């Protein structure tokens, strides 16, 4: 196993090459633009706070539909850095709410989307793929794909909870 110092040396080399810096900056800019898109185009959702950049593991921002807010739930639009893919997560505003709704979805054997096997180390109750292998050459089309998938996910979640 490499030491932390070894990893820092490798990081230094990658940063000096420049591609990783350009890619990271581009991904962060895309996420800011995506968040802004949701805030402007979907005033029916609260888009609180700012972009959470993460530790190069995930970057996300919350969307809070009113019907979910009343239950202490929110949606996270997440960029998973390792695979460079976009997901939507149903999350709770605290661990107790998260556990309550995770149990509900598991007991009902709701199989429309992924339900984590455990909440240990997880922030999601239910997960949805929005863009698995995204291309960034047409950011407008990618935003549209993520938006459409997120809206469907939100509709499916709220419909399930209202039945």
Task: Describe the fold and architecture.
The protein has helices at 4-17, 19-41, 66-69, 95-107, 139-162; strands at residues 45-46, 58-65, 73-80, 85-92, 126-131. By secondary structure, the chain is of the alpha+beta class. A five-stranded antiparallel beta sheet has the order 1-2-3-4-5. The model has no long low-confidence stretch (mean pLDDT 95).
In short:
This protein is α+β, with helices and mostly antiparallel strands and about 160 residues long.
Which strands sit side by side, in order, in the main sheet?
Answer: 1-2-3-4-5
Distance between the termini: 51 Å
Number of strands: 5
Largest sheet: 5 strands, antiparallel
Give the overall shape: globular
What structural class do helix, strand and pairing data support? alpha+beta
Compute the number of helices.
5
Strand content: 15-25%
Q: What brief labels describe this structure?
A:
163 residues, alpha+beta, 5 strands, 48% helix, globular
Structural topology:
Blueprint: H1 4-17, H2 19-41, E1 45-46, E2 58-65, H3 66-69, E3 73-80, E4 85-92, H4 95-107, E5 126-131, H5 139-162
Antiparallel strand pairs: 1-2, 2-3, 3-4, 4-5
